[in-house]
Amino acid sequence: MIYLDNAATTFPKPATVWDAMDRFARNDAGNPGRSGHRFAAAAAAEVEGAREEVARVIGAPDPSRVALCLNATDALSMAFHGILRPGDHVVTSRMEHNSVVRPLNALARAGVITLDRVPNDATGVVDPDALAASLGPATRLVAITWASNAFGTIQAVDAIARAVKTHGALLLLDASQAVGSIPVDVARVPVDLLAFPGHKGLLGPMGTGALWVREGIEVDPWREGGTGGDSTNPFQPAEMPHRLEAGTPNAHGLAGLRAGCRWVLERGVAAIRTHEQALATRLLEGLRTAPGLAVQGPADADARTGAVSFTLAGFAPHEISSVLESAFGIAVRAGLHCAPEAHASLGTFPAGTVRASVGPSTSNADIDALIEALGALGAGAR
């Protein structure tokens, strides 16, 4: 089977990820911070080690500003519910994943916030000037995806960040498709909150993720409870990261995330980016020759991640996905990719598209097999 669904979750994971999880589960799986024995101490060291490696990947100077959580959805909701207050105005875009769309819609429907969405062009790019023009006196937060999970479009986050900072609002970036796949440096880009999963570009297991919070910004706890620290305090601790980390963590998964981050750091995010860009370029060039095929998103691989969405005349996206797996042994994803507004803005709603997304383990041969298979499908449809 050729796996081309890395935007959903990277596969296969490096062997070191599973080895780390197995070692931890067999030898060190105490409850971190909850006891004084060696198993608890070893588990606490594993969790803190994961935090430090995540901080290294995103260029965060202080690992304590990294709150470890369940996934990007968890991190985003943690930020929304911990930052926003009644009367706040929020600006986002039409390119967002439902992890941004749904919680903001719920807050707007409840009358807590007012909400505006800036449009995008035909390739999914949000105009920083249009975004700046949408900011008003009550704007508290701008929430934007760094890179589209549906179309691979990379936003001009530097220009967006400058506009937001000039206005004095907070900037939250959904970096689900960015961290580990394109260079991210929070010390350089003036982002205030960065949400991302551990199971995509960081090559960790599912059930892991993080929210990075810039120094000086306070996020109220979304979940409250045990932290394994000072049990005499009747309230959630005020300091990071315990402020946002109530309950027993997924230490088994964080052991794997720590190993995944190390794998990424050893190879270098820039090298991973170069590899995935080359594959995306190869795919885009091959798809241009396939009969009846239309590609959505930027034409230039420099302006996109390794996620490429397309349609094929005469076929519904789910039909293409099914045939690619059953007849050619190729796994892709079809549909709306949890981003219906993005598809509506590019004219591919409600059927969606087929998305092929590369990863560190994808080869040229994998891309050529997909191109050949789609060429055969297109020729058969004529």
Largest sheet entry = 7 strands, mixed
Helix share bin: 25-40%
SS elements, strand count: 13
Structural class designation:
alpha/beta
Mean pLDDT value: 95
Count the DSSP helices.
11
Unreliable stretches (pLDDT < 50, length at least 5) are none
Helix and strand pattern: EHHEHEHEHEHEEEHHEEHEEHEH
Q: How is the largest sheet built, in terms of strand order?
A: 2-8-7-6-5-3-4
Tell me the overall shape.
globular
Question: Could you tell me how far the N terminus lies from the C terminus, measured between alpha carbons in angstroms?
Answer: 27 Å
Give the strand content: 15-25%
Compute the gyration radius: what is it?
21 Å
Care to describe what's here?
The protein has helices at residues 15-27, 38-58, 72-83, 98-109, 128-133, 157-167, 251-267, 269-287, 317-328, 340-346, 364-381; strands spanning 2-3, 66-69, 88-93, 113-118, 139-145, 170-174, 193-197, 209-213, 293-296, 307-312, 330-331, 333-335, 353-357. 51% of the residues are buried. The mean pLDDT is 95. 39% of the residues lie in helices and 16% in strands. It contains eleven helices and 13 strands. The strands form three sheets. Strands 2-8-7-6-5-3-4 form a seven-stranded mixed β-sheet, sandwiched between helices. A four-stranded antiparallel β-sheet has the order 9-10-13-12, with helices on one face. α6 links the parallel β5 (139-145) and β6 (170-174). With 382 residues, the chain is of the alpha/beta class. The radius of gyration is 21 Å and the shape is globular.
